[in-house]
Amino acid sequence: MTLDELDQLDLAAFRATLGGIFEHSPWVAEEAWPLRPFASLDALHAAMCKAVVDAGEEAQLALLRAHPQLAGKAALRGELTESSTREQQGAGLDQCSPGEYARLHELNAQYEQRFGFPFILAVRGHTRDSILANMAARVDNPRDEEFAEALHQVERIARLRLEALLQA
């Protein structure tokens, strides 16, 4: 799909096309739709990110909570979105050793208990080891710092998904 084609879509089609860019949060696409036409992929991404910022902390927390744990139960049951499955497989999270799964599970639980949302990392370019290192390093961050970092990672994931969609 091209950006010009995207700009021509009605709200329902726009939402259907971009509804998964921000995990299980089609409201982000809905908020960006009235700002069409977009001059560039950067402009589209910026509009969607602004919708998240403008939505406030409660909606941002819901957005973070919509993300699955890395190599978590949903992944093991095959319940991830197509994008999340592809991203996690690309980082090798579907090939974890029993020890790696145990460590991921432990860190996921610590992180979610401490912050109230799952650990989020744009995993493209990461390995299982670098993901585990990121989790271990971030689990002790102050909550406000980690909330901001999680939102930053969501924006990175969204950017990568937009690039994949518009270059397919």
UniProtKB/TrEMBL annotation:
Domain of life: Bacteria
Assigned EC number: 4.1.1.97
UniProt keyword Lyase, yes or no: yes
Catalytic activity, as annotated: 5-hydroxy-2-oxo-4-ureido-2,5-dihydro-1H-imidazole-5-carboxylate + H(+) = (S)-allantoin + CO2
A molecular function GO annotation: 2-oxo-4-hydroxy-4-carboxy-5-ureidoimidazoline decarboxylase activity
Pathway: Purine metabolism; urate degradation; (S)-allantoin from urate: step 3/3
Keywords, sorted A to Z: Decarboxylase, Lyase, Purine metabolism
Class of this enzyme: lyase
One Pfam family it belongs to: OHCU_decarbox
Domain Oxo-4-hydroxy-4-carboxy-5-ureidoimidazoline decarboxylase: 8-163
Protein name from the UniProt record: 2-oxo-4-hydroxy-4-carboxy-5-ureidoimidazoline decarboxylase
Organism field: Tahibacter harae
Lineage: Bacteria, Pseudomonadati, Pseudomonadota, Gammaproteobacteria, Lysobacterales
Gene name in the database record: uraD
